[in-house]
Specification:
The complex is a heterodimer of chains A (about 260) and B (about 325).
Chain A lengths: L1 H16 L1 H38 L9 H25 L1 H9 L1 H6 L5 H33 L4 H26 L5 H17 L9 H10 L5 H6 L4 H28 L3
Helix pairs in contact in A: 1-6, 2-3, 2-6, 3-6, 3-7, 3-8, 6-7, 7-8, 7-11
Chain B lengths: L1 E10 L2 E11 L4 E5 L6 H8 L7 E6 L2 E2 L4 H7 E4 L11 H11 L4 H15 L14 H13 L5 E5 L7 H12 L6 E6 L2 H7 L2 E6 L2 E6 L1 H8 L2 E9 L2 H10 L3 E9 L4 E9 L5 H10 L3 E8 L3 H10 L1 H5 L1
Parallel strand pairs in B: 3-8, 3-9, 6-7, 7-8
Antiparallel strand pairs in B: 1-2, 1-4, 4-5, 9-10, 11-13, 11-14, 12-13
Helix pairs in contact in B: 3-4, 4-5
The chains are: A mainly alpha (about 260), B alpha/beta (about 325).
Chain lengths: ~260, ~325
């Protein structure tokens, strides 16, 4: 446990002594802030329109659903931005160690590959959690000027956490395949995209297979969280997705020793 | 302490090492000598559990590297050829990290880090970022990293490479200081290093062990004949003639002709013939001038070249 912590600590520190953490967090916040602003502005505009319409026909203006109009699309956008940005966090985890040769140091130290893997993954997850926590400031606006439902926001964040965790696990896996960080990041993005759109295929194949493909899709399971529904089925999906990716990473690290590639 | 038996490792179809067998006693410093790409690094990587072997076994402190890698790793300090350092950390934080992953008790950590810093001579660079260290200091940090947990076995892959002469001497002294306390395997292609620091040498070439012995025995074993260099002032043909008549001398050849009739000869004699005395007598008796008379020592370089270029000769 102490060794896992040592790996974790080193990874976190290395994020923050290099520009990576700052650039990634800043970009993530900036882009999500732009989306939040646009979504909120169109919501406000829509409210005005509805009000005008109601006054014209001398009716009560109907209540507007903040969740339906603001938080739900916002979470959808965050998931997309994370898809582009999270691979930049994970790309270095193994690729850099392979390139600089420090992997030799780690693998000849009395620490198991599983401990290293967990430490590294945990560091990436914690950085991502920090990014998510910072976006909560946007939500404070909603609390200040409206009355959003805390439960739905919580469920949205839980969904963001799980889907981001899946991205990070895939990113970690692809970082073990190469000593080139760019290759690691690009393949990660491509593979995540495939898992996004895999559900569409279900329209073109027979029902049984289609259902299966649909269930494999990463966004398919996010929908419920965005709606505010926490379903164990979806949680189990993401957790097993993460587990599988980490398991394959472990296999990949072990097998690299046998192949003798550096 | 270290037992290596028939160790073989293939990369694809190419054998990087084949049937490598040797042992290292407790507290011994073993030189692992060979040209580049001879298989030194591969052997070391197998010993440190970084690579698995294709065939054969290796045991460190009676733990098999394949079955008990964690126990082996606990007992080994390893300095790879390029010291593996995290460029963005400071010297101290790097060693702190190493101490943690090597499982050093937190209560001893500070003291052990300081000892390692002191031994490796890094005192004045504690807060320097690794990226900004010179090659020599990086190498020292690599050594500090290897000795921090006071391992029973030290495996050093070309520890003096890239250092300046003064640093090389310091590192060699440091390694010599491990004698008796740590078991050391030291790989190098610099020969004087071996005769200076090691008690025993394993010479490896193209993946095979070609010789294993003490440095001085190796020299003796390879000497079929003794060579003596004589510089004499006198008529060439007469000198050759009378020197050839000395008992035990098999051949006299001219090496170099200098001014004032000074000529250097190389005299081949059978081993243990003790011809120097007779040579001197002969020269003086004839009234020639004797400027120089010395045994030509075969250096490790020559042994090494013989072993690695004319293997047949050695095996016969």
């Amino acid at each position: 446990m102490r060794k896992i912590w040592a790996i974790f600590e080193r990874e976190i520190k290395s994020y923050f002594v290099s520009p990576i953490a700052y650039v990634v967090i800043a970009l993530f916040l900036a882009v999500s802030a732009i989306f939040f602003y646009l979504i909120l502005s169109s919501f406000v505009q829509r409210c005005f329109e509805v009000d005008m319409y109601a006054q014209q026909w001398r009716q009560m203006s109907p209540p507007m659903n903040l969740h339906e109009w603001v938080t739900r699309p916002f979470f959808g956008n965050v998931a997309t931005i994370a898809l582009m940005i999270l691979p930049l966090i994970t790309m270095k985890l193994y690729a850099e160690e392979k390139k600089t040769g420090t992997i030799e140091l780690i693998q000849t130290s009395p620490i198991t590959n599983i401990q290293t893997l967990i430490g590294k993954y945990a560091a990436a997850v914690v950085l991502y959690i920090l990014m998510l926590v910072l976006t909560f400031f946007y939500m404070l606006f909603l609390f200040a000027f409206g009355n959003p439902e805390i439960g739905q926001i919580f469920s949205g964040y839980l969904g963001m956490f799980l889907i981001g965790g899946s991205y990070l696990a895939i990113g970690l896996l692809f970082s073990t395949f190469t000593d080139n960080q760019i290759v690691a990041a690009v393949t990660t993005i491509a593979v995540i995209l495939i898992f996004w759109v895999i559900g569409w295929l279900s329209n073109f194949v027979d029902l049984g297979l289609g259902n299966m493909l649909n269930q494999l899709s990463l966004i398919e399971h996010l929908d419920d969280f965005e709606k505010g529904v926490i379903d164990t089925k979806n949680i189990v999906f993401y957790l097993s997705f993460i587990f599988m990716s980490l398991f394959f990473s472990y296999i990949s690290i072990e097998s690299a020793r046998w192949r003798g590639s550096r | 302490m270290i037992e290596v038996e028939n160790l073989t490792r293939y990369f694809g179809n190419i054998a990087a090492i084949e049937d490598v067998t040797f042992t290292v006693e407790n507290g011994e410093i073993l030189g692992f000598l060979g040209p580049n790409a001879a298989g030194k690094t591969t052997t070391m990587r197998i010993l440190t559990c970084f690579l698995p072997a294709s065939k054969g076994t290796a045991r460190v402190a009676n733990f098999d590297v394949f079955q008990n890698p964690l126990e082996v790793k606990k007992r080994i300090g390893y300095l790879p050829e390029n010291p593996p350092l995290y460029a963005e950390m400071t010297v101290y934080s790097f060693l702190d990290f190493i101490a943690k992953i090597k499982g050093i008790d937190p209560r001893d950590r500070k003291q052990k880090i300081n000892t390692a810093i002191e031994k490796a001579g890094l005192d004045d660079r504690i807060n320097t970022i690794v990226k900004h260290l010179s090659k020599g200091y990086k190498q020292r940090l690599g050594i500090a990293q290897a000795i921090i947990h006071e391992p029973e076995v030290l495996i050093l892959d070309e520890p003096t490479i890239g250092l300046d002469p003064k640093q090389i001497i310091e590192v060699r002294e440091l390694i010599k200081g491990f004698e008796g306390k740590h078991t050391v395997i030291l790989s190098t292609h610099i020969l004087p290093e071996v005769s200076m620091t090691c008690q025993r040498v394993v010479i490896i070439d193209r993946g095979r062990v070609v010789a294993e012995d003490k440095p001085e025995n190796l020299m003796a074993k390879l000497k079929g004949s003794e060579q003596i260099t004589v510089v004499v002032g006198g008529p060439e043909s007469q000198v050759i003639e009378s020197l050839s008549k000395v008992q035990g001398v098999s051949q006299v050849t001219v090496i170099q002709k200098g001014a004032d009739n000074k000529i250097a000869y190389s005299v081949d004699s059978s081993l243990h013939a003790e011809v120097t005395k007779e040579l001197a007598k002969t020269i003086v008796k004839n009234g020639w001038d004797l400027y120089e008379l010395k045994k030509a020592e075969m250096s490790l370089e020559e042994i090494f070249l013989r072993l690695t270029t004319q293997e047949e000769e050695v095996y016969n």
